[in-house]
Each structure stands twice: as C-alpha cells, then as structure tokens.
Amino acid sequence: MRVPRRRVMVAGCAVLVAAGFTADYFWRSDTSGGAVAAAVNPHGTDRYGDPLPEGAVARMGTVRFRHSGPIDGIAYSPDGKTLASCSAGMTHLWDVATGRELWRVAHGGTKLAFSPDGKVLAGGGERGVVLWDATTGKERGVLQAGIVHALAFAPDGKTMASVSFAPGGGEKVRLWDLATGGERQCLENAVAAAFSPDGKALAVGTTDGVVRLWNDSTSREICRFPAKRETRIERLLFARDGKTLAVCVRLHWPETQWDVVVWDFLKARERTRFSLGSLSFDLSPDGRLLAATTADHGVQFWDLATGEKLRDRFPGSMPGCRSLAFSPDGRLLACADLHQALHLWDVGGGREVRPIEAPTEGVSVVVLSPDGRIVASLTRLQPVVRLWETTTGRLCGEIANPHNQEAFYAMALVPGDTPRIVLQGYKLAFWDVRARKLQEVLKDKGRAEALAVADGGRFLFLGEWDGRTSVLDTAQSRIVHHFEGHDPAGVGVCAVAPSADGKLLAVDGWQGTPGGARLPVVKLWNVADGKEHPAFRNQKIVGTCVALTPEGRVLAANDENGGVRFWDTATGRELRRVARSGQVSALAFAPDGRTLAEGRTDGMVRLLETATGGERQAFPGHRGAISSLAWSADGRLLVSGSRDTTALVWDATGLSSAGPLRAEKLAPQEWEQLWRELAGPTSPRTHRAVWRLAQDSEQAVPFVKEHLRPSPLPDPQRVVRLLADLDNERFSVREKASRELRELHASVEPALRKVLAGKPSLEVRRQVERLLESLSEWSPEELRGLRAVEALEHRGTREACALLEVLAAGAPAARLTREAKAALARLARRSTTP
Questions:
Q1: Considering the entire predicted model, what is its pTM?
Q2: What is the 3-state secondary structure (H, E, C) of 3-20?
C-alpha cells in the first residue's frame, strides 16, 4: 500500500521559494508496519520474523528477496514454489510464498537453470557450471565449461547444454552427460542453445546469424533458419507448447538494438518480429506472451500471435527491471529491479503480489539521534532519508523529495539544543529532528561527498567532490576555512574525520602520483591555521577509510592489504598494525575512543581495542559490504549500514550474547575472577568483563576503589640515576637501568624525551629510543587500569566520578592518570549536551 504523506509547512517560505527549495521535503508517517510486521519484536527476530544475527538488537529493512548487489539471473523451480537468483558474489534460493531465504551459497554467476525434476540447480559463471542440491544447497559437482553465459537442461534431465567463452578458444556449446559429468559433444562457433520441449531437437545459434536444429539423439542437423549477416544470435527460447521458437538477435545499425524473431517451429517459417530495448525477456508457458525489459528498464508485453505491443502492465511502482522470468503456471512474473530486490507481479491483474515495504537499495550512511532512539539511513543518489526506531527496526518516517528533483550525497547529525540532520545534495538542508521539519537551506556551499560535525555541532566539515575540504560555521551559516590537498579530478574527498573539539581534521581523498596513477591518501590538518600537521607532513598514508579518536590522540586508517593501522597524532609514530585478509570499508571510533569499529567488504563488523589492536567482539550477519558505522552516545549500541539494503543495531557491550545477567550479587571469588580477566589479552571475555563491571549497581565502585590506586609519582632522584646508568660502562648496569625504567611505564616518558632532546651519546639514544618504543605496548597492569576506568566512565554515577577524580590525581604522565582525566572531561561534556 502507498504510505500517506503530510506536507510540512516551513516558516520563511518566501526565502525557500527564492532558493528553489520550497515544499519538496515531506514528513511521511508509516503505520503499515510492513508486510509481516509485528507490534513487538519476538526475541531474536526482526519485524518480518527473520532471525537476527547473534548480538543484533534490531534490523532496519528486510533480508527477504534481497541481494547484496544487482541481480543478474533468476529462475523458477518447475513446481513454482521456489525462486533462485544470482548476483556477482552470491546465489540464493527463496520461498516464493513468503520471500524467505531457504539457502544461499557464495557463488557469483549470471545464469541459473533448474533440472526438470527440480532436484538440481545449475549456476553458470566464471567457474563453469556449478550443480547444487536444490533442497539443501550442497554442491554436487562442477562442469569445467569455461566462462558460461547460458544454460539449458534437456527435458529428460540427463543432458545439459552450456554456452561458454574460453579466452583464445572462441564461443562454444557443450553437451554434458549429467550422470558422468563428461562432455558428450562440442559445437564450435555457437553462441546460444535451447532444447525443444519434447527433447528431440536442440536449437543452436551460431556466430554467423543462423539458427540450426540438431537431432539430440543422432547429433545430426535437421534444418536451419537463416538470418541477416549483420545480426548475432543472443538467446533462444522455446515455448512449452513446442510450436514456437523465439530468437533474440542483436543488430548493429544505426546503433545496437535487439530484435526478437518468432518462428513457427513446426512449419519452419518466421511468424513475426519486433524490437526490444534489452536482452532480458521470457515467454509465457502457453506461448502467447513475451515479456521483456525495455530500454528505460520497464516491462513490456507482446502478443506472439500478432506481434502487437501490449500496454505496460506494471506502472510506476517498481524501480525498473533488470531481468525477469515467468512462473511455470504463467500467473506470476518475477522481476529483479535495478537495485537489489526481487518482485512478484500478477500478470493478469498488473499488481505486485505480497509487496514488502522495505528498502530495495543499499544503505550508504547511518546516523543516530542524540538520544539513541532514531536511526536515519541514506542511500547515495536517492532523494529520501528513512527514519527508524532503534529498538524495533520500525520505519517511523521519511525525509523525502516527492518530485525527485534532487538526490542526496551525504548526511550527518548536528547535536545541540535543537538536533538537526544535515543533508547534502546540491544544497545543504538542515532538518529539525524534534520538530520534524525543514529548518534551513544553504545554497552555493559546494557538493560534499562526506560530512562530519565537531565542537558540539558548531562546525560542519564538508569533503567535496573537487578535492577540497570546507569548514562551515553552523551558527553563522558561512564557510570559515578551506583545505586543499587532494586532486580535483575523479572522486575527490571520500571521508572526513574531525576531533570532537574540531581542532584536528583527518581527510581521506585521492592524490595523483608522478606516474599518473591516483591513490587514496590520508592527510591530517590543524584546523586553526589551516596547515597540514607537521608530524604527518612527510608521511604518505594510503587508505580508503579514516577515523580519529574524539580527543584527537589516535588516528586510524586501513591499508591496501586489508589491515588497520594506528598512529599517535602528537608524534606521527605508528603505534600498531592489525593485519587481516580482505578489505576494510568503514571505520568509526566509539565516543570514548577506546574501541574502533571496523566494517569490512565481506559484511563483518569487528570491535578493536584501541590500546592493543585486539578483537573485542565480532558481529557477522550482513550479506554485503559495510558502508557506514555509527555509535550511540553512551557507546552501548553500534549501527552498521550495508550494501545488502539493511542496517543492523548491535549490542556493543557483548552482554546479550553471553545470556541474561544474574540478578544476585557476585561472590568474592567471582569478583576476583573478573579482576583477573581485566588484565588478560583482548578478547570478547575481557570486553564483557568491562561491561559487567559497569552494569553492577552496588559492588563495582567499592571493589575498584579497593583494588586500584592512583599511579604514584616516580622518585625524581631515582629516575635521574637510572637515566645516568644508561650510559654506564658495564652492560649489566645498563640493562638493569633499562629494565627498571621500563617498569615505571609511561610515567617516565617526559624524562626520556627530555634526554633525547639533549643530544645524548649514541648508546644512550639507542637505549632511550628502544624504551620509548616499548611504551606503545600496554602492560597487563596498565590494561587492567585502563579497562577499570572505562567501566567507571560507563557507569557515570557520582561515586564513579569521585573515584575517577582520585585516579586523575596520580602521576601526570602515567596512563592511568591521563585516562581518568579524559574520562572525566567526556562525562562533563556529556552532562552539558542536550
């Protein structure tokens, strides 16, 4: 059903009229709740009844009839109860009645075909022909047929024809014995094939524009249908009545087009012909209709008896059609739209059957409202932003342009007394989250590919398509800074990441090389003077994703090998590198900067501990690349947007996957076990221990207070003596001094850097540099202190803040002291944020 719209009246309408941006944004309220929606989500399922991945709280959108990319091929099972579809990386089998996925396999192909008995599904692609058990999805075999672009089963199910291209070998039709997997026959210079319904004839289209009919049992040619020399046979399709053969030919004048020639197979003569706008078509089982996609991606029908073009029966409700297939009874037409979804249409009634009210295109950007109750999702180049309830996944509204006059490229959330969503098309539009209305429109601010906010929403950073990065003062509605440094040609800036106070800005964009190639390069800027950060001026960081901790102390970016690297922004020194296979597609630091969320092209979301680079939690569940990540203000929830058309809300604490928390108090030995876990290597177990400590309402703060003390100031005279011993003639004395200095951890870092600045001897310099390098690693005791402070910050109670103040009074250079001070500062900012 169509969702009713309500026009939003905006004050200052005359100004908006002059800007050409008047009443073209609407608030749309959705009360339908989706095709199979429930008022309250059952535990572990989304609103459509499909299971949620472990650790997920809610799903925005649906996985029913949805792919992670454009759909290339579809095929009905013989009984019409299931539908198979394939895209570049995945093949799915769906239940036609519900749209529920039955199974999927990682196989990219373009063509699919069921065996006549429906027990085998064949997929053609670069691997040749892959055969699966249609019930279980288990692979049954592979036919080495080259790069396959067409398939056909013989009616008896014993033979298969594959049309393939082999580099250097031309195009061929191969006939396979499915009992043995062996090749029976190979027909050279053949580009299309189809079996007659009775199985007695095989039609083969050749490269010279001729259709030849072969006797399948004797392998002898029966007859041929000539065509013009300028044509090329692209597809052959028999109607099930055995009387009609449709031949799709490609013409090359005055421009490429496709014609369908309809032959009376029994009389061996042409019946009619007509032009198509594309190569995708199918015949109705009774041989009366031909359905085809058109040049503008619609669906058109022809009467095969007369060649008469029938009217478009599917008006306007579907975002185009890429491929299609009739159901075995001819009552339904399955269509793959231009996005990533399948639709079923009633051929006679011209209406969609059981439509699923959910996005059909991938999610590009997600943001969370300040209170964490609403998720906004945007698809680039689409004129709509969807608003969802965080806890249920219910679509609760839209910011839409009903006239499709302008698409959006980027989105960000501006916090403050009046939280606003800012949308970038060819203008900047600020939308009041609470009042749910358009508040302000700014023209001539460039076209941003990426947006980010800082300083409580005062500054808006725009990464533009021409390679510039601009800083907009939102209070004055004017640009106050420009940063150059990335190439204007091509994509320009693809990501911007400011520190929370807006003083530092990391920009990821494209940069030319002396050889003419372009690479994605990360630059770090000082916003106040508009200059590149001196510690990074001579570094070349290549990556497509970038993130900066809220305090601006750590920079993270992916590398070309699929890993993640961390840098100290003060010194430009690389802290650590996390190596992985695959590719990173999104990065986002948690509000406290202690966790980095990493999204990957395989759909995996991981939480990495900033201090160690270790994995805190892994969330598999998306079926497409992660495009965007957004944290809730308290760090408890993480939202991931994906190319699979959905967004997922994750429990970032990891507690939900460990089962319900016990209501009773922990025993003393259990508290001691928890304290030991805090000092362990990074793992889901230690991550849950942090949040378990933060969840406890009575015992946690007293327990931490008893076990954790402020870092003591090191004895200055002892430090001076140990530094002097680094230059001692005796090796054992030098080693002892180095070991004792290392045990003092980061509290001696200022003294070590002072020694380096004083031009020490070569031996002392070597020792000091080695000590400073070792300080990038955290000792178990330091990790326990860091995680305990993290738990106290998450608690945020008066008692927790009082303990943080005690810990912040320790040795100024000690890590525990710095972490406690940073936690207090964040809590103070959060308490003043509306």
A1: 0.85
A2: CCEEECCCCCHHHHHHCC
